[in-house]
């Protein structure tokens, strides 16, 4: 009987051991299968998946995307788990590592920074990290992802560049138009000179601006001058007079009647003799010519070398055309010369002034054409609306494509009539920031297309004057899926 019981016990134990062994084998196979699936998923995603020891900040694991994005091998991390730090751009490294150290305590890490590939190529990445805690609640691991956002950064820079080009072209055209109208709108010399000095300093950023009027062959009088020293002191000795024969740079412009741009005055042998502007490092000068006679000079200077470029010289030359005609007409007006020769010259001057106005208007149109070209051909959506009503004055083709409206359906209508803004209060808030002088750059908002679709948008805007109205020049660009606010994934009307 005992023998039979022993046989039954051993048989039962054998069955239990068999079942347990099969369970272990099955669990092991499932573990291996899960590990294989994880490895397959990690190797096929485009983002870097990483795991880090929270105490040592050494990487314990990265997937194959690490090699694709950073240009460095996964094997290099096995040999030196901290070598990822070398890939971070030197200007960003200290901040990123300090934030990573803080993340080992807070459990939160999210940074956008630059990395440098072995071939010195720069890339932008967006890294995010999350905590892994032990049974006691202590963070002992950080896991996360790092995504290549270089293309997105380049797109943002392109938006900034297009917006800056459009704004610059429009501001130049507007400044030249106002200067031309002001110079020809009053014949009093004081008004002409004040207006000319103001226009010159508006078009060209400088520390010294001067209007030289020619008396005789070489005698020059600084009729108007604006001087800003590094210490902020203004020149008090006024007016300044000198003989151009004692100032070689001025004499060359008078004799040749040609404009001059000197990027670095230290390279000019006779510049040290040019008093009282010998301290300037950059200088440009444009002759004021009317009726083939030189009336004076416009000059601008700066204490820094290469402060001016050919565009600055071009703007000064455009301003000199109506300025010379205005000065000549003002002189004739004040002298009240009625001699036949003077009367004939005045008629010629009037004709030349008209021609100058035409040339200036043509220049303004060229600037407007440049603005329109940038505006029309930009790959991102651009629009011009009035500040007060939000009434559309102009849009480009990219705007039509993005929102489904034709230009004819938009012009003359307001954003409220078309229900463009999903939340009209967003526009009111953005306008309040602009009124305070704040810049609007890549603000995340929601805009509605003609079909009713809500598009998440990176919105940028600047104030401009358009048709003598206060307007918004706005850029609205697509927002990447991962940039969308989580709370707005299902927007409602």
Write a structural description.
The structure is a single chain. Helix content is 45%, strand content 25%. The protein is of the alpha+beta class. The protein has four domains: 11-40; 45-148, PAS domain (Beta-Lactamase); 158-375, Beta-Lactamase (2-Layer Sandwich), CATH 3.30.450; 378-488, Beta-Lactamase, CATH 3.30.450. Mean pLDDT is 81; it is low at 337-341 and 487-493. The protein has 13 helices and 16 strands. The strands form three sheets. A six-stranded antiparallel beta sheet has the order 8-7-6-11-10-9, with helices on both faces. It has a five-stranded antiparallel beta sheet with strand order 2-1-5-4-3, sandwiched between helices. It has a five-stranded antiparallel beta sheet with strand order 13-12-16-15-14, with helices on both faces. 28% of the residues are buried. A hairpin with a 5-residue loop joins strand 3 and strand 4. The chain has helices at residues 2-44, 65-70, 74-79, 90-106, 150-183, 189-203, 248-256, 310-335, 340-377, 397-403, 407-410, 415-418, 424-435, and strands spanning 48-53, 59-62, 109-116, 122-133, 139-148, 208-215, 219-227, 240-243, 260-262, 282-290, 293-302, 381-386, 392-395, 440-448, 454-466, 469-478. It starts with a helix and ends in a 15-residue tail after the last strand.
């Amino acid at each position: 009987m005992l023998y039979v019981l022993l046989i039954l016990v051993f048989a039962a134990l054998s069955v239990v051991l068999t079942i347990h062994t099969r369970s272990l084998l099955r669990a092991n196979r499932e573990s291996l299968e899960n590990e294989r699936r994880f490895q397959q998923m990690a190797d096929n995603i485009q983002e870097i998946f990483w795991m880090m020891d929270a105490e040592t900040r050494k990487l314990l694991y990265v997937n194959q995307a690490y090699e694709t994005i950073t240009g460095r091998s996964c094997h290099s991390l096995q040999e030196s788990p901290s070598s990822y730090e070398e890939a971070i751009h030197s200007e960003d490294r200290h901040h990123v590592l300090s934030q990573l150290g803080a993340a080992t305590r807070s459990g939160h890490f999210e940074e956008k920074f630059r990395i440098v590939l072995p071939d010195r190529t720069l890339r932008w990445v967006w890294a995010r990290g999350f905590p892994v805690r032990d049974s006691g609640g202590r963070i002992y691991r950080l896991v996360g992802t790092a995504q290549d956002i270089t293309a997105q950064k380049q797109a943002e820079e392109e938006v900034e560049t297009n917006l800056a080009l459009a704004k610059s072209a429009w501001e130049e055209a507007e400044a030249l138009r106002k200067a031309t109208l002001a110079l020809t709108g009053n014949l009093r010399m004081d008004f002409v000179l004040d207006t000319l000095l103001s226009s010159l300093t508006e078009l060209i950023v400088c520390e010294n601006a001067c209007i030289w009027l020619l008396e005789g062959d070489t005698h020059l009088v600084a009729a108007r001058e604006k001087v800003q020293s590094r210490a902020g002191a203004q020149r008090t000795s006024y007016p300044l007079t000198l003989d151009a024969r004692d100032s070689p740079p001025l004499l060359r412009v008078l004799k040749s009647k040609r404009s001059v741009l000197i990027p670095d005055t230290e390279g000019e042998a006779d510049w040290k003799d040019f008093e009282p502007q010998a301290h300037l490092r950059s200088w440009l000068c444009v002759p004021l010519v009317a009726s083939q006679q030189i009336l004076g000079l416009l000059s601008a200077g700066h204490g820094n070398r290469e402060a001016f470029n050919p565009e600055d010289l071009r703007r000064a030359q455009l301003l000199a055309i109506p300025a010379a005609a205005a000065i000549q007409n003002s002189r004739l007006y004040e002298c009240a010369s009625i001699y036949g020769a003077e009367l004939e010259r005045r008629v010629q001057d009037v004709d030349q002034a008209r021609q100058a106005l035409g040339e200036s208007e043509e220049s303004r149109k060229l600037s407007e054409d440049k603005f329109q070209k940038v505006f029309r051909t930009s790959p991102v959506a651009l629009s011009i609306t009035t500040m007060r009503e939000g009434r559309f004055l102009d849009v480009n083709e990219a705007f039509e494509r993005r929102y489904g409206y034709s230009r004819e359906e938009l012009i003359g209508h307001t954003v409220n009539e078309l229900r463009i803004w999903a939340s009209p209060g967003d526009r009111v808030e953005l306008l309040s920031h602009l009124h305070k002088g704040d810049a609007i750059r890549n603000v995340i908002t929601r805009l509605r297309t003609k079909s009713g679709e809500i598009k998440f948008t990176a919105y940028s805007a600047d104030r401009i004057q358009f048709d003598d109205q206060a307007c918004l020049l706005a850029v609205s660009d697509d927002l990447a899926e991962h940039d969308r606010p989580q709370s707005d994934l299902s927007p409602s009307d």
